[in-house]
Amino acid sequence: MPTPVTQEQRNIQKTGKNDPIPVQVLLILLTFAFFASFVFMPLALVFSQALGKGWQLYIDSIREPFAIAALKLTLLTAAIVVPLNAVFGVAAAWAVSKFSFRGKTLLVSLLDLPFAVSPVIAGLIFVLLLGSRTPFGSWLGEHGIRIIFSTPGIVIATLFVTFPFVARELIPLMESQGREEEEAAVTLGAKGWQMFRIVTLPNIRWGLLYGMILCMARSIGEFGAVSVVSGHIRGMTNTVPLHVEILYSEYNYTASFAVASILVFLAIFTIVAKALLEHQIQQRQPAQADLT
Amino acid sequence: MPPFSTNRKHILPGFGLSMGYTVFYLSAIVIVPLATIVIGTFRMDPQAFIGTVTAPRVLASCRLSLTTALLAALCDSVFGFLAAWTLVRYRFPGRKILDALVDIPFALPTAVAGICFATLYSPVGWIGQLLAAKGIQLINTPTGIVIALIFIGFPFVVRTLQPVLSELEPEIEESARSLGATRWQTFRRVLFPHLFPSLLTGATLSFARGIGEYGSVIFIAGNLPYKTEIAPLMIMSKLDQFDYDGASAVAFMLLIASFTMLLMLNAVQRWQEKASH
């Protein structure tokens, strides 16, 4: 399929050719050297360590009961966190992108707040709020509810660190789409839910999916925040990244890297999904891309 | 603007519901929990607070976190600029794969990055071996921390520079050249000043991230008190001793540091907008 040459591509073709060939070659080689030492080597290392003692040990390390329990807990956490943050993301993006109100800039910057906070602090705030030594935590404890050093604590800390992903993806997308289509639907008599399902959702589905994938990747991989609230009880409150840490600190490197390789697959999946979805999102707005 | 424009905002349903839910959820998950640190710190005895944050071990950890994050941000400016420049301006085999891999530090769980760098640079690791032959050891040193932070921070620089680089008009360079500027002069006087605000934004983001980073650092750092113990780890060890006040005092200082960074970033971005008009 022939694609029209955009202004941007024209810029690149012309500017790139301005640089002398030896400079180009040198810079490209330096870039490859940087990627080799900071990206390729760490990724290759994971598989070389994980498979270094044979496939059998690799499979055994992944199928070991504590690893399975950690995987289950991680998936459970992601299964709770992603839908909650997705619903919130859609609601926040709807309010911010389709209406104007006072304090909008403040609200948008507050939405990004969790990204500015160290993961360890993200865990600490929930220990301070809900831990058994705090008034609220001890009240919960008297009623038999345990949050910190237990699954709910892991879920809440993960909710915090993955909070902005979906909203942040949807706000610019929905702002660029404007209000006309939804207004037309409402004028033609659509109910709020009908309008959302038939007009809004199809327009934002790729952006929403992308935000949810980023949210999922982070909720599966979160380490610092979860480490603070989990208590590291094997088979109970151990997530996959925490399991990697425990195995590593016990000098069980092969098992540690074997479990880590699951997380590397997750990272590669995220990156491929990102590339595919960005393609989809761009294709939906070809007219706008050409105008700018 | 049509005369109905102010009215039309109110046609769409769901403002009350979506806004109400947004504010409720934001408060429950983010604002109230974060406020506990601030309230907890203000309820502390001022003497105890000052005592905690000026304890030599705490000061050493804060200094270490700030200096390593700053050094890593500087290195990221160089490497990130190089990568963004090459990926945007040149066409070569593997470019699209490299471009996608820029996001690896965002996508790879930090603990995995941590054990990878600790193993690579250990005296028997792939890189550590070569360095050990020359008598250099990076593991358990501040340099090791910087290496982990370079990895964590470089996508911020690349991703903020890429859009600006691809929007550069070839005419700018051509006119500078036709006015007699050499290639280096064109770069230094024309292109670089244009790219600098974005470079600064990316480096600040990488710096802010580096101050709070935990997972990728603790494995390579060795965590020796006064030497390679970072501030987030300080919070962690105070929590392990159930010193909740101490932990929140250190956390409060770290929060102040990251919010100052973000405010400065805001100022940089406003300056950038002004410069581009």
SS element count, helices of chain B: 14
Order of helices and strands of chain A: HHHHHHHHHHHHHHH
- Helix/strand-derived category of chain B reads mainly alpha
Domains of chain A (count): 1
Query: Any low-confidence stretches of chain B, pLDDT <50, length ≥5?
Result: 1-8
Provide keyphrases for this structure.
heterodimer, A: 292 residues, mainly alpha, MetI-like fold, globular, B: 277 residues, 2 domains, 14 helices
Note down, in words, how this protein is organized:
The complex is a heterodimer of chains A (292) and B (277). With 292 residues, chain A is mostly helical. Chain A has a single domain, classed as MetI-like fold (Orthogonal Bundle), CATH 1.10.3720. In chain A, 79% of the residues lie in helices and 0% in strands. Chain A is built from 15 helices and no strands. In chain A, helix 13 (240-249) runs antiparallel to helix 14 (253-284). Mean pLDDT of chain B is 89; it is low at 1-8. In chain B, 79% of the residues lie in helices and 0% in strands. Chain B has 2 domains: 12-43; 46-276, Orthogonal Bundle (MetI-like fold), CATH 1.10.3720. By secondary structure, chain B is an all-alpha fold. The chains are: A mainly alpha (292), B mainly alpha (277).
